[in-house]
Structure formats: structure tokens, C-alpha cells
Amino acid sequence: MSLFITPDIASSRLRRLPQLLLFAGFAAWYYGSDALASRAANGFSVRFRLGLGEPLLEVIFHLFLLVLGFVALETIARQAVPLGVLIALPVRLTSYREWAIGAAVAWATVIVALLPLILSARLHAQIEWTGRSLIATILTLGMLWVASLAHEITFRGYPFRCLIGAVGATPAVILMMLGSGFAVWRNPYAPRAGVLAAMLMTLLLSLGWLRTRGIWLPWGLHFALTASLGVLFGLPIAGVSDLASMVRGSTLGPDWLTGGDFGPSAALFSLVVMIGAIVVLVRATRDFAWEYTHAPIVAGGYEVVVAPPAAHTAMEQATVKKAPALVQILPSAPQGISAPRPDTPAPPPPMPDRLH
Predict the structure, then answer these.
(1) Residue of 262, 118, 251, 242 lying closest to 185 (CA atoms)
(2) Which InterPro entries is this protein grouped with (predicted)?
């Protein structure tokens, strides 16, 4: 190993340093804007008596501040770029299809993970049919829709690409997985299976971006996962169980089967299901990966034209025949009258009759 740093290595490290600084700036702005959005939403809620609309208003403010801060930081660091490129939401023909595939994978994952609880009658739900609960459910769905977008813009959007530019794709995914696992591990009430669940979920969402180069699919997956667990079944999501919904769900049984207070994502069977969801996601995004991640094939090298040997050229020229002479075709004459030959002189004109 060389003990000296070559100019190429030094320039590469200098190029990676701004990427790390941008990632750190984006991460700091995420938490700072979250605090600002919370205070602004609280003030609006108290002033205009919004009540149930405060969580939705908070995530809307957070999303607005996130995009505004990301645009400002990117403009200062480099130059202005299109908003769709910055937040990894490119407008393309497959955008809605990507979102739908992500939602379908999440829905299937939740159903399969809850299947043992459903079959063993350990999943119970209580439904409250009131106008207030219906409005609360709609607002909660809107809040989750915007919150999942804000989360994916931050953790799978431009900051994630900055981290990839600094350390590479695989190390970036590993760092994101460790970060999400550490965030859950800090919770003293979270089970160890919850740490693994958070890491696997981060891997699943990161693969969604790596396979499509956009957050349409991770956004659909994140929203459908939280909406189906927290709203449709009324179960806790990573220990959060205060989502407003018409359905109040509960589970009975050991924590390894139900996940306990952390939610079904911490159940051991759910970990196996999420590994299967990763395999399904990779297979379902083969067309997207080919279209958006593979570079087009460009022919390399230089055009080479080999001249034929001089002897072959001479033989070809010698075999070229002269063009045949034109053949004159005589005009046709009526039957019984022979046409005069072209070389026969024309007879003299008849003399006029004389008067005698």
C-alpha cells in the first residue's frame, strides 16, 4: 500500500467532502424544520380552532419548509435544478404505476404479516361509526399521505443521493439502516425485533429508490404501509398508537407473534415477511431498473474502412462492359404497305396537270 496520497485520490476526497456537508445540512434542516412546523401548526390551530386538522397542517408546513430549505441549500452549493429532480419526483409516464406498485407491495406485506393473527383469532377490531370519527379518519389519511412524502423526500430524496455520491450506494444504504436502527434502539420500550424491523424497512424503501431512481414507489409503499396498519386495522406503528381512526385494533398473544405495544412490525414472523417483500420488490421493478438505472449501450471505438486490394479493383474495372449502342426502331406501317427504308431517297413530288 502506498503511503502517499496521489493527486487523483486527493481530488476525489475533495469532491466527496461537499456531498457529506450537503447531507449533514439537509439532515439538520429536516429536524429544524420539523420543530418550526410544529410551532406554526400549533399557533394556527389555536388561532383558527382547527382541532383535528392540526396534525395535517403540521406535516404540510413541514413539507413546505423541507422543499424550501432543500432548494436554498442546493442553490447555494451548486446551481438551481428542477424541483422534480431535486426532490426525486421526476414526472414520467410510469410515475403512477410506480406509486401503485409500492402501495400494492405494502398492502400485501401487511396482510401476510397479520395472517397468523387473523387465522388464530388473535386480532380484534372495534369500529366507531360517527361523523367525527369519519372526518378524523380522512384527516389522518391526508396527514399520512403528506408525512410519508416528506419522509421519503428527506431519506430517499436528494440527501440520500448526496450520501451515495460521498460513500457509494451500498455503504449509504448500510448507514441509513444503522441510523434507523439506532433511532429505534434509543427507545427503551422498543423490543430488539423492532430494531431489525426498522432496518429492514429502511432497506426496502432504499431499494425502491435504487431500482427506480425516484421516490414514487417508496412513497406509495410508505403511505400504504402506515395507512393500512394504523388506520385500516387500528394497530400501533413503531410504538405510535394515537392515530385517529374509526377502527381500534388490538392483538392478544406473545410479543414474538403480535409485536406487543410496538406493533406487528416487531413480530418475528413480520421480519420474515419483510425479507420476502424485498425479494418481491426486486422482481416487480425489473422493468424500471432496466429503463432508469442502466446506461444506454453506445458503440465504442472508431470507424474502420478497409480499401480492397489494387488487383481486385483492376479486375473489376476490366470486366466493366461498355454501354450498348442505341438501336433505332423503325415506325410501323399499315398492312400491305411497306415502310420505306431510311436510306432510300424520297420520290420527287408529282407534277401538276397541264391544260391542253
Answers:
(1) 262
(2) Rce1/LyrA-like_dom (IPR003675)
- Which residue is listed with cell 439537509? 26
For residues 154 and 30, the answer to whether their CB atoms sit within 8 Å is yes
Give the C-alpha distances (Å, rounded to integers) separating 154 from 27, 81, 141, 164.
Answer: 8, 17, 20, 14
Q: Is the dihedral of CA 6, 11, 16, 18 positive or negative?
A: positive
Looking at the domain assignment, is residue 191 inside a domain?
yes
The verdict on residue 185 lying in a domain is: yes
Distance separating alpha carbons of residues 137 and 116, to the nearest angstrom: 26
Question: Is 11 contained in some domain?
Answer: no
Residue with cell 424503501: 205
Q: How far apart are the first and last CA of the chain?
A: 136
Q: How far apart are CA 88 and CA 209, in angstroms?
A: 9
52-63 burial string, b = 16+ CB within 10 Å, else e?
Answer: ebbbbbbbbbbb
> Model pTM?
0.75
Query: Would 24 be classed as within a structural domain?
Result: no
CA neighbor of 114 nearest in space, from 105, 122, 103, 104: 122
Distance CA 238, CA 261 (A): 8
Residue type, 267: A
How many Å separate Cα 319 from the centre of its chain? 64
Q: Determine contact, residues 105/223, Cβ cutoff 8 Å.
A: no
What confidence score (pLDDT) does residue 301 get? 57
pLDDT of 13 reads: 43
Range of the domain at 149: 90-292
For the chain, how many structural domains are there in total? 1
pLDDT tens figures, 75-112: 776 666 777 777 888 888 999 999 999 999 999 999 99
The one-letter code for the residue type at 256 is W
pLDDT for res 320 = 60
Is residue 268 within 8 Å of 256, Cβ to Cβ? Answer: yes
- pLDDT, tens digit, 9 for 90 and up, residues 120-147: 888 988 888 888 888 989 999 999 999 9
User: Which residue ranges of the chain lie beneath pLDDT 70?
Assistant: 1-17, 77-80, 295-307, 312, 319-356
Report yes or no: 109 and 277 within 8 Å, Cβ to Cβ.
yes
